[in-house]
Model the fold of this input.
Amino acid sequence: MSDELPSRGERTRAEIVQAAHDLFIQQGYHGTSMRQIARRAGIALGSLYNHFESKEQVFRAVFIEYHPYREVLPLIEDVQGDDLEQFLRNAVHRMIGVMQKRPDFMNLMFIEIVEFKSAHIQELFNLIMPQALQLIQTVLRSHQAQLRPITLVSSSRSDWSGGSRSWALQSRTSVPTRPSRAITPTTADP
Done:
């Protein structure tokens, strides 16, 4: 771990992201201007554009940097449980605890989904998944004795010509399973 202090540029960028976060939460994305962000960060508008080309880039930085995964993943790594069920319960309680302390995140998610049509979710997913997969593998290894193989199941539709549809479950593995039964809805299609 480095003891170096952040550079002046890094501090300015952090102040911009903090100011934008606060304004986006208070006023929404469209209600916030670059000029307001610069003013809140205590810098000139030109300085803001030295760090970010657009307001969307500012939002992207806010969305990535304020995502609670930075808090949640380390907490889950430390979760204990006598068995897998208890481990999962404890992990979920910790995640809920973090989310209850972060109502701002739901506002950011709303902006991301509505205003940007989830444009930044893939980047966030790519950032989180390596850490999450490593955590999942660790959990699975430590609770392997409690796990059982599962059969992958798919559904297929048939009888499209009649007034009702039936669905049959078909196993896609060679593992013997109980015979599947057809499920036929009792109501007719409109």
User: Anything to note?
Assistant: Helices lie at 8-27, 34-41, 45-51, 55-65, 69-77, 84-100, 103-116, 121-142. Confidence is low (pLDDT under 50) at residues 158-190. Residues 74 and 135 are 9 Å apart (CA to CA).
